[in-house]
Specification:
Largest sheet: 8 strands, antiparallel, barrel
Structural class: mainly beta
Strand order of the largest sheet: 1-2-3-5-7-10-11-14
Distance between the termini: 32 Å
Length: 269
């Protein structure tokens, strides 16, 4: 009985020591995301351009230190960026649509683009290093670089844009899509220890994916022909003559990339 009591005490002491070491951390962070590369390019009809505007990113992660310096991290990541709607509307206003064989291009003004978002969700794993910024006994600041890789699930937003004039109406639509793509993240953070278990951190990272392929994306542009039957009733069906239009279906490729800054909290156990 005495030996059993000693064994229980040793196990309890080992568990307490492990808990006090705080080798495990749960952290959550949130902040702005700034699109880069082709994802941020502003040519609406360009190949692989995203027309993405600044948005936000968020991450929930589990960290485990394997020794005094290195450890591994598993994380769930979210990123959302809106359309650059003003830029899209301006480009549509200067785009000529060749409706009908042998006809000249038609131009439409006063385009309005419905708000919509690109969405990225990723599951990643990787390695980090934990480096104190000072060797002082009371040092509370730590520098932590990291590299992570995994897979992302990305969402292509649908497009709804229309042009209204006194006697004309045009409508451009494109369907939404979903795809998977490999993902990579490189970053670093600075941690400040508030208590033995709680810390706050500021981080910056780069997130990017390989090409995601959205299959058979449908794009259509229709416009009234010959004016409106009923004034101020903006509808393709309200066309005085048979509406004119174009339709296409094709695969669409898109890379996703962004520079992010986030602030977060980390709890050690």
């Amino acid at each position: 009985m005495k030996k059993t009591g000693i064994l229980i005490a040793l196990i309890f002491q080992a568990m307490l020591t492990t808990a006090q070491s705080n080798n495990n951390h749960l952290s959550a962070s949130f902040g702005p995301s700034f699109p880069t590369g082709k994802y941020a390019d502003t040519d609406f009809f360009g190949d692989g351009t995203g027309m993405a505007s600044p948005g936000f990113s968020a991450m929930l992660s589990f960290n485990h230190k394997t020794n005094n310096i290195f450890g591994y991290q598993i994380a769930g990541y979210l990123q959302s960026n809106t359309w650059n709607r003003k830029r899209i509307a301006a480009q549509l206003g200067t785009t000529g649509f060749p409706f009908g064989p042998g006809t000249t291009q038609r131009y439409y003004s006063n385009w309005e683009v419905q708000k919509n978002n690109w969405q990225v969700a990723a599951l990643m794993a990787g390695l980090f290093a934990e480096l104190p910024l000072s060797q002082a006994a009371d040092n509370k600041f730590t520098f932590r670089p990291k590299v992570m890789a995994g897979f992302s699930h990305v969402s292509l937003p649908s497009v709804f844009a229309d042009s209204k004039a006194d006697t004309a109406y045009a409508l451009l639509t494109s369907q939404k899509g979903k795809a998977f793509a490999p993902a990579l993240m490189l970053g670093a953070e600075i941690d400040y220890q508030i208590t033995s278990r709680l810390s706050v951190f500021l981080l910056a990272d780069f997130f990017g994916t390989n090409h995601a392929r959205f299959k058979d994306v449908e794009l259509s542009v229709y416009a009234t022909n010959g004016g409106l039957v009923l004034p101020d009733l903006y509808s393709i069906q309200n066309s005085r003559n048979t509406p004119v239009g174009l339709e296409s279906k094709a695969d669409q490729k898109q890379t996703f990339s962004g520079l992010n800054t986030r602030i977060g909290l980390s709890f050690g156990f």
